[in-house]
Amino acid sequence: MAGTDNGTTGADGTTGAGGQGATGATGATGNGQDRPIVIVGASLGGAKAAEALREAGYRGGIVLIGEEHERPYERPPLSKGYLQDKTPREKIHVHPPQWYGQNDVTLRLGTAVVSIDPAGHTVTLADDGRVAYDKLLLTTGSVPRRLPVPGADQEGVLSLRRVEDSDRIKAALRPGARIAVIGAGWIGLEVAAAAREAGAEVTVLEALELPLLRVLGREVAQVFADLHRDHGVDLRFGVQVTELVGDGGTVTGVKLGDGTTVAADAVVVGIGISPAVGLAEAAGLEVDNGIKTDRHLRTSDPDVYAAGDVANAYHPLFGKHIRVEHWANALNQPQTAARAMLGQPDAVYDRIPYFFTDAEWTPRHPNEPVASRDKLSMEYLGYVEPEGYDRVVFRGDVKANEFIAFWLKDGRVLAGMNMNIWDVTDPIRAMAGPEVKWPDGSRDGPVDRRVAAGTLMEVLTLWESRMQALGAGSRPSAVRTRRRRRPLRCSNTPSRRQRAK
Ligand SMILES: Cc1cc2nc3c(=O)[nH]c(=O)nc-3n(C[C@H](O)[C@H](O)[C@H](O)COP(=O)(O)OP(=O)(O)OC[C@H]3O[C@@H](n4cnc5c(N)ncnc54)[C@H](O)[C@@H]3O)c2cc1C
Ligand SMILES: NC(=O)c1ccc[n+]([C@@H]2O[C@H](COP(=O)([O-])OP(=O)(O)OC[C@H]3O[C@@H](n4cnc5c(N)ncnc54)[C@H](O)[C@@H]3O)[C@@H](O)[C@H]2O)c1
After folding, report:
1. What is the three-class DSSP state of 110?
2. DSSP structure class, residue 393
3. How far apart are CA 296 and CA 181, in angstroms?
4. Which of 152, 194, 217, 392 has the greatest number of C-beta atoms within 10 Å?
5. Are 272 and 293 in contact (CB under 8 A)?
6. Which range has the worst mean pLDDT, 274-283, 339-348, 371-380, 423-432?
7. Spatial contact of 178 and 361, defined as CB atoms under 8 Å apart
8. How far is the CA of 201 from the centre of ligand 1 (A)?
9. With contact defined as beta carbons under 8 Å apart, do 108 and 129 qualify?
10. For residue 286, what are the CA distances in angstroms to 230, 304, 337?
11. Of the bound ligands, which one is closest to the alpha carbon of residue 221?
């Protein structure tokens, strides 16, 4: 059962075009079944699920099917290092090419799944081939929303999801080019920062009053607005885009509701995504803002699971379904889904959501070191619904862009965000969320949580004392190290491993 990188070799129950229809798998099995586990969606979530199955000791067939031609890769660099030509293409992939063969994972790229037959336990491919499954995992992710205005399909109107999209935007980011960005969300702001670094003139057009308003709320959104304005981005809020005007099929500007037009050589649209639920919906699975799953990431069909951007999963700590559109969720949920598919009853997904963003601007004076005002390196832990908090507490130095923000409701910490301060995610995680979890495994109620509303030092001291109670050296204390060496001023960019929260 050899893995393949070119999408041509079928195995483990796959049949090519004109094949014999639904067939059982031929490969070795580890679970008493002769059909493989099939994963639809060969990106971060799908590749991590295959890895987790092998790590859990599963020896049966794994078929990983993806419609993209690139082997599974991570998307965060597409709006950061890769877009800025700092991260080479070979660094964006989840696994090296040989990993799939070495782990007996059959990788079928350039292959779209067009339907699922839950009763027959098969998926049908675009070429009419069918693949039988024992268990099915859907990691189909999401697709960018299209701008519903005239002219949105012209040359020069770009969106960003895939590596080839990033290539196209990269080509447009030339010194002096006029770039209009529609949407001041994550894509809009990260592209704006990259475009400024490339020497382009950037106008960001956002429908709401501030960037990232629904995620961060007014107080912290204002920090992001100030930072991007300081670095030369023309941010315009409360605008209505009515048309993309053009010349001979190529975009030349963005027409707004007030009748003005913003001239543009290229327009980048980043107005959010929709979860890719088409397959699930057609198969009769329960869908509501994503594919609904239980705490084990199992959908309404007991043999079908979902993870990553597409999953609206029941979160036992929050007591409700939540869908998270971030990297760490696509990294970690597949481990739970894999264990659940293997019948492990304790496989429950209860991680607190985590995400990050990065941007760095060249100092205006060439001999100056990069100051925190020229960096935006942040991590966020927690979960806050839009307007679901009653106050934000800042600790640190907001003006210097080195701070931690806590979102609170009724004296409880819902989320925390560290900006240009590193190695504090453990204590923030302990504070954020419905239950305080300490390193010794104990759990506290709201009394300790109120400490988080006190001072940053109190939070860190409390955390440290809990760590010390565990015994020196029992677990490295990032907080202790950082506080001893560079109190509150550590701004090293964390490694991806550190970020695997
Ligand atoms: C440019 C960019 C930058 C980002 N930066 C960050 C960041 O800094 N921090 C952060 O936390 N998050 C970031 N994210 C979000 C993060 O990348 C996503 O949450 C993550 O990619 C979700 O992974 P996934 O595997 O669930 O889905 P996806 O990455 O969307 O992958 C789904 C895959 O399934 C395939 N597929 C879909 N339907 C089918 C089908 N029917 N048949 C076959 N294949 C199918 C798709 O082609 C795709 O390859 C970023 C996203 C983008 C686009
Ligand atoms: N650092 C990160 O975590 C990161 C980075 C890049 C992308 N992503 C993910 O990629 C996906 C796409 O990102 P995104 O930035 O497109 O979505 P987003 O949801 O983050 O932001 C979309 C923005 O567009 C605005 N908007 C919507 N319709 C508009 C319109 N017609 N005109 C003007 N503004 C409009 C919204 O108000 C919002 O501010 C998301 O899932 C996001 O989480 C995450």
Report:
1. coil
2. E
3. 39
4. 194
5. no
6. 423-432
7. no
8. 28
9. no
10. 46, 11, 17
11. 2
What Rg value do the Cα atoms of the chain yield, rounded?
24
Q: Per the structure block, which two tokens stand in for 165?
A: 């999209």
Q: Residue 375: beta bridge partners?
A: 360
Residues 6+ apart with CB under 8 A from 43: 66, 68, 72, 73, 75, 94, 139, 141, 308, 330
Highest mean pLDDT among 30-44, 309-323, 476-490: 309-323
Distance CA 249, CA 235 (A): 27
Number of Cα atoms under 13 Å in the Cβ half of residue 225: 19
Helix (H, G, I), strand (E, B) or coil at 49: helix
The structure tokens 């859907």 sit at 138
Q: Is 281 a residue whose pLDDT tops 90?
A: yes
Sign for the pseudo-dihedral over CA of 479, 501, 273, 180: positive
What is the CB neighbour count within 10 angstroms for residue 387? 10
Q: Which of 136-145, 322-331, 332-341, 479-488 is predicted with the least confidence, judged by mean pLDDT?
A: 479-488
Distances (CA, A) of 172 to 169, 231, 233, 305, 362: 5, 19, 17, 39, 20
Give the pTM: 0.88
Query: Which residues are near ligand 1 (CB < 6 Å)?
Result: 40-46, 65-68, 75-76, 78-79, 112-113, 139-142, 160-161, 187, 276, 279, 308-309, 325-328, 330, 355-357
Q: pLDDT of 403-452, one tens digit each?
A: 889 888 877 778 889 999 887 787 777 777 666 655 556 665 554 544 44
**Which atom of ligand 1 lies closest to the CA of 356?**
9
pLDDT per residue over 2-22, tens digit each? 333 333 223 333 333 322 222
Cβ(13)–Cβ(23) under 8 Å? yes
**DSSP conformational letter for 107:** E
Residues 6+ apart with CB under 8 A from 190: 79, 80, 83, 357, 359
Burial call 163-175: b when 16+ CB within 10 Å, e when fewer:
bebbeebbebbee
Rounded to the nearest angstrom, the gap between the alpha carbon of residue 31 and the centroid of all alpha carbons in its chain is 32
Q: Which of 44, 149, 274, 325 is the pocket-test mutation for ligand 2 (most atoms within 8 Å of CB)?
A: 325
- Specify which residues 144 forms β-bridges with: 273
Of 53, 31, 100, nearest in space to 72 by CA: 100
Please give the pLDDT value at position 47.
Answer: 98
| Closest C-alpha among 191, 228, 230 to residue 211 | 228
Sheet holding 130-132, edge to edge: 113-117, 122-125, 130-132
Residue in 335, 358, 364, 355 with CA at minimum distance from that of residue 347: 335
Q: What are the tokens at 300?
A: 């309404």
Instruction: Report the chain's mean pLDDT, rounded to a whole number.
Output: 84
